[in-house]
Amino acid sequence: MQYRPTRREYLLSLGVTGAAGLAGCNTTETGTPTGTEASTDAGTATPARTEPPTEPEPTETPSEDPEPDPPEASIGGWPMFGADPANTRSAPEETGPTENVGTLWQFRASNVISTSPAVVDDTVYVGSHDRNVYAIDAAGGTEQWRFATDGAVQSSPAVLDGTVYVGSNDGHVYAVDAADGTEQWRFATDGAVQSSPAVLDGTVYVGSDDTHVYAIDAADGTERWRFRTRGRVQASPAVADGTVYAGSLDQRAYAIDAADGSQRWEFGTGRYIFNAPTVANGVVYVSATNRTEGTMYALEAGDGAERWRYQSFTPRGPTVAVADGTAYLGTTHEDIFALDAATAGERWRYRPGDWLMAELSVVDGTVYAGCGDGVVRAVDASDGTERWTVDTGNLIRTPPTVVDGVVYVGNYSDTVYAISEA
């Protein structure tokens, strides 16, 4: 029988024992690091594993006609968790619904959906606790194929150049043909892979519960390097400007050279890091929590120096989306905040009710929030006024995906929703 977490079990897993654990006010602090300075003397990179030789490909007689040029690598739609390898959760070229919305379709899996859908080439890719990865027609919501793993899929798929990359709690990272769901390769780690892959320049970057961050060749699944932390790595890495940024349950954030896996710096938070870092405009945003309150750190991407921090009562840590000089923070308690990305000065706050657990995306001047009360909310990014809400009926644990005027989101009732203007 497949395990299905209840909402109560999920909240207890975060260490929440009652409303008293969440009471309080949000405060902003700016200035210099306070006992959590960046350093460069921890974490290790180890060489790639030796893989067994592969069978040579059969030689074909060249045809008289020249071969067509290979397609150029491109990123379109919403190809991975956070919209891009830097996890900005913002897609400037996309559009989303702003008024008169309704449910376009619903797709039902067999267990909880706690992954963020990827949408590429009119197909929605999503994983489920029922151990499957699904490909769903974006227009009508019909299943195109499913790929079975041997564990719950809590890793959000990444789709690039015709391949789906996804982790599973069975300890593997899989590469699957995006057209028909056939397996291309699998890569074994020594722990569950809840981390969502970030894919850039022919490399898959992903964390594992075995404490490592891995760089894997996207074409054949061979290991390029691994980097050891001191705790489980459950969040997606962020990749920008030749650096991989990763958080660990060892309470540290790491900057790792994308080419060889060597450490550039680390930043100690003294708190667990469950959420993916975000990189924008030379700043790394790192969310950390002691399971009662959370802190968002803004760090210099180059050396890890702290710019500012912002505290909120968020058992799993605040989430962030960054667009147009604004950092939008989702919290567990009541609020969504818009902060000046440079100074953390508050621009507005949106407070619809208790226990938001808001996961955010920003598209075309609108903040889209998937919330713990099961409601998808759309808020004007400029002033925080509410545009619309849709109740899906159960917990939403990942940021919405917004492509071509449609919002896609999964919930704990095993369902993917497509929401659009009527």
UniProtKB/TrEMBL annotation:
<dbReference type="Pfam" id="PF13570">
    <property type="entry name" value="Beta-prop_ACSF4"/>
</dbReference>
<dbReference type="InterPro" id="IPR018391">
    <property type="entry name" value="PQQ_b-propeller_rpt"/>
</dbReference>
<dbReference type="InterPro" id="IPR002372">
    <property type="entry name" value="PQQ_rpt_dom"/>
</dbReference>
<dbReference type="InterPro" id="IPR011047">
    <property type="entry name" value="Quinoprotein_ADH-like_sf"/>
</dbReference>
<feature type="region of interest" description="Disordered">
    <location>
        <begin position="21"/>
        <end position="100"/>
    </location>
</feature>
<feature type="domain" description="Pyrrolo-quinoline quinone repeat">
    <location>
        <begin position="115"/>
        <end position="311"/>
    </location>
</feature>
<protein>
    <submittedName>
        <fullName>PQQ-binding-like beta-propeller repeat protein</fullName>
    </submittedName>
</protein>
<dbReference type="InterPro" id="IPR015943">
    <property type="entry name" value="WD40/YVTN_repeat-like_dom_sf"/>
</dbReference>
<feature type="compositionally biased region" description="Low complexity">
    <location>
        <begin position="27"/>
        <end position="37"/>
    </location>
</feature>
